[in-house]
Amino acid sequence: MEYVAAVDQGTTGTRCLLFDRAGRVAGEAYETHEQHYPKPGWVEHDPAELWTNTKAVVAEALAAADAAATDLAALGLTNQRETTVLWDAETGEPVGNALVWQDRRTTERVEELEREGKAEWIRERTGLEPDAYFSATKAEWLLDADPVRTDRGATRDRRERAADGDLLLGTVDSWLVWKLTGEHATDATNASRTMLFDIRALEWNDDLLAEFGVPEAALPEVHASSDPEAYGTTDRDGFLGAEVPVAGVLGDQQAALFGQTCFEAGEAKNTYGTGSFLLANTGTEPVASDHGLVTTVAFQRAGEPPKYALEGSIFVTGAAVEWLEDVSLVDSPAETETLARSVDSTDGVYVVPAFTGLGAPHWDGRARGTILGITRGTRREHIVRATLESVAYQTRDVLEAMEADSGEEIESLRVDGGAVRNDFLCELQAGILGREVVRPALDETTALGAAYAAGLAVGYWEGLAALREQWRVDRSFAPAMDGDRADARYDRWGEAVERARDWARDEA
C-alpha cells in the first residue's frame, strides 16, 4: 500500500491528506462548511454537510495524488471534539444540527450544577471543568428539547428512542465512523471530552449518564485511538469502492500532540486554529489541575495503557483574526503580519476576544469580547496588533497554569496550525512566554497525528522511534523581548481580562 489517508474534520472545514512512508503529503483537498448561528451564543453545523464534504475531500485527495482507494493502507480520522450529533440509527439521517463546541446555550445548566455543588464531583471523574463547552449538556439538550417542536411528548419520545438504540448519539468522530463503516465507535480521547466518561476506569460513568439523562445504549463503544480492528473497514460498495481499515481515531488536539511526536511526559504543543489548545503529555498517570486546566486522555494504542495530558483550551484565537476580516479591518489573515509590524506597539490597546466566553484558566461562559484603551489616535494597525497579542497572552495564561500544576518548567513549545505561518505571531509568542517556540516543517500536524495512529495500527510505520526521526523543524524562535517589558504587558492583559468577565448576564 502506498499511502495512509487522514481526514481532519474541523470547526470551519474538512481536510483530507494522503501521507507516504516518509510523512510527506502526496495529495490533499479541503472543503468549508456553513456555520449556523440561530441565536446569540448558539453555534451549529449540519452533520449531513460534514459527511458530504468528507466524501468529497477523500475523493479529491486521491485524485490529486493520482491514487485509488486500493492504494490506501489505512484511514485515520481526527475531529472537532466536543461537537455533538444525534442521528437516526435506521435512516442514517441526523436529528437536527450538531451542537458545536463553541455553543453556549447550556450555560445556565452548568451554573445549576455549580450551585448544586457538583463541580468537584464531575472533575474527579472526568478531569474536566464543568462547562457548556463539553458534550454532556449538549447531549442533554438534544434529548430534551426539539428545536422544531417543543411539546413534552416529542421530547420524551426522543429520549425513549435513544434508550432503545433507535437514536444514536456521539461526537463528530463517531458520526463519521458510523457513516464510513457502520460501527458505532469512538476513541478514548474523544470520550474524555464528553463529561460523561471516567478517564481512570476508561468507561462511561453510570452516575454521570443518570445526571444528564443520557442512555448508554445510544452512546458509542470506546476503543483505543490506534487499533487495527475496532472501527471496521469502509464498504466495498460505498463511495470508495474498496475495503479500507479505519484504524486511527483521535480528537483534533490530541492528534496534533501525536503528530508533533510528543510521546513522552513533559513534551508540549500548542495548536493555533479557530481556538488554541495547549497540551502537555503527563505520562500514564492523570494529573489533576488546581489552576483551571483540564485533565484528558492524550492517546492510547491498542493493548497499552493510555497516556494522559493536561490541557488548556482557549476558545478564540484564529477566530479573532477571522473577525478582523469580518469587520473589514483586514482584507485577509495574511495582512495581519504586515499591519502589526507597521506600528511599534498597540498604543495601549488591548483586545480580549471572549466572543464565546473564556476557557482555561478562567472558565467564564459569560465573558464577552472587549477592546480597551482606544483613543482618538487609535488606528486599525493598533487593533490588529492587539488582536495578535491577545493570542500570545492567552497562551501564557495557560502555560503558567500548566507549569504550576505539573511542577515542571516547559522549556520550549512546539506550535502548529494555520496561524503559525505568521512569523510575527511566533516571534511575539516567544517574547511573551520568555522561551523558545518551535515550528515544524509540516504544520498540518493534526492530520499527521491521525495518519500516524492509523498507520501504526496496521504496521505501515514500525514504531514511535521511526516517527520521531521524521519530525523536522522549520524554524525556532528565541525570545527577543525584554523580560520586564513582557511581564508588565502581561500584567496589564490580566486587568483587561477582568473587565471582560461576567458581561453576558442576560444570555443563556
From TrEMBL:
<dbReference type="GO" id="GO:0004370">
    <property type="term" value="F:glycerol kinase activity"/>
</dbReference>
<dbReference type="InterPro" id="IPR018483">
    <property type="entry name" value="Carb_kinase_FGGY_CS"/>
</dbReference>
<feature type="binding site">
    <location>
        <position position="318"/>
    </location>
    <ligand>
        <name>ADP</name>
    </ligand>
</feature>
<comment type="function">
    <text>Key enzyme in the regulation of glycerol uptake and metabolism. Catalyzes the phosphorylation of glycerol to yield sn-glycerol 3-phosphate.</text>
</comment>
<dbReference type="InterPro" id="IPR018485">
    <property type="entry name" value="FGGY_C"/>
</dbReference>
<dbReference type="GO" id="GO:0005829">
    <property type="term" value="C:cytosol"/>
</dbReference>
<feature type="binding site">
    <location>
        <position position="418"/>
    </location>
    <ligand>
        <name>ATP</name>
    </ligand>
</feature>
<feature type="domain" description="Carbohydrate kinase FGGY N-terminal">
    <location>
        <begin position="3"/>
        <end position="259"/>
    </location>
</feature>
<feature type="binding site">
    <location>
        <position position="82"/>
    </location>
    <ligand>
        <name>sn-glycerol 3-phosphate</name>
    </ligand>
</feature>
<feature type="binding site">
    <location>
        <position position="274"/>
    </location>
    <ligand>
        <name>ATP</name>
    </ligand>
</feature>
<keyword id="KW-0808">Transferase</keyword>
<feature type="binding site">
    <location>
        <position position="11"/>
    </location>
    <ligand>
        <name>sn-glycerol 3-phosphate</name>
    </ligand>
</feature>
<feature type="binding site">
    <location>
        <position position="12"/>
    </location>
    <ligand>
        <name>ATP</name>
    </ligand>
</feature>
<feature type="binding site">
    <location>
        <position position="81"/>
    </location>
    <ligand>
        <name>glycerol</name>
    </ligand>
</feature>
<feature type="binding site">
    <location>
        <position position="274"/>
    </location>
    <ligand>
        <name>ADP</name>
    </ligand>
</feature>
<keyword id="KW-0547">Nucleotide-binding</keyword>
<feature type="binding site">
    <location>
        <position position="133"/>
    </location>
    <ligand>
        <name>glycerol</name>
    </ligand>
</feature>
<feature type="binding site">
    <location>
        <position position="133"/>
    </location>
    <ligand>
        <name>sn-glycerol 3-phosphate</name>
    </ligand>
</feature>
<comment type="pathway">
    <text>Polyol metabolism; glycerol degradation via glycerol kinase pathway; sn-glycerol 3-phosphate from glycerol: step 1/1.</text>
</comment>
<feature type="binding site">
    <location>
        <position position="11"/>
    </location>
    <ligand>
        <name>ADP</name>
    </ligand>
</feature>
<dbReference type="Pfam" id="PF02782">
    <property type="entry name" value="FGGY_C"/>
</dbReference>
<comment type="similarity">
    <text>Belongs to the FGGY kinase family.</text>
</comment>
<feature type="binding site">
    <location>
        <position position="15"/>
    </location>
    <ligand>
        <name>ADP</name>
    </ligand>
</feature>
<feature type="binding site">
    <location>
        <position position="252"/>
    </location>
    <ligand>
        <name>glycerol</name>
    </ligand>
</feature>
<feature type="binding site">
    <location>
        <position position="11"/>
    </location>
    <ligand>
        <name>ATP</name>
    </ligand>
</feature>
<dbReference type="InterPro" id="IPR000577">
    <property type="entry name" value="Carb_kinase_FGGY"/>
</dbReference>
<feature type="binding site">
    <location>
        <position position="252"/>
    </location>
    <ligand>
        <name>sn-glycerol 3-phosphate</name>
    </ligand>
</feature>
<dbReference type="InterPro" id="IPR043129">
    <property type="entry name" value="ATPase_NBD"/>
</dbReference>
<feature type="binding site">
    <location>
        <position position="418"/>
    </location>
    <ligand>
        <name>ADP</name>
    </ligand>
</feature>
<feature type="binding site">
    <location>
        <position position="253"/>
    </location>
    <ligand>
        <name>glycerol</name>
    </ligand>
</feature>
<dbReference type="GO" id="GO:0005524">
    <property type="term" value="F:ATP binding"/>
</dbReference>
<dbReference type="InterPro" id="IPR018484">
    <property type="entry name" value="FGGY_N"/>
</dbReference>
<keyword id="KW-0319">Glycerol metabolism</keyword>
<feature type="binding site">
    <location>
        <position position="318"/>
    </location>
    <ligand>
        <name>ATP</name>
    </ligand>
</feature>
<keyword id="KW-0418">Kinase</keyword>
<feature type="binding site">
    <location>
        <position position="82"/>
    </location>
    <ligand>
        <name>glycerol</name>
    </ligand>
</feature>
<dbReference type="GO" id="GO:0019563">
    <property type="term" value="P:glycerol catabolic process"/>
</dbReference>
<feature type="binding site">
    <location>
        <position position="81"/>
    </location>
    <ligand>
        <name>sn-glycerol 3-phosphate</name>
    </ligand>
</feature>
<feature type="domain" description="Carbohydrate kinase FGGY C-terminal">
    <location>
        <begin position="269"/>
        <end position="457"/>
    </location>
</feature>
<feature type="binding site">
    <location>
        <position position="422"/>
    </location>
    <ligand>
        <name>ADP</name>
    </ligand>
</feature>
<dbReference type="Pfam" id="PF00370">
    <property type="entry name" value="FGGY_N"/>
</dbReference>
<protein>
    <recommendedName>
        <fullName>Glycerol kinase</fullName>
        <ecNumber>2.7.1.30</ecNumber>
    </recommendedName>
</protein>
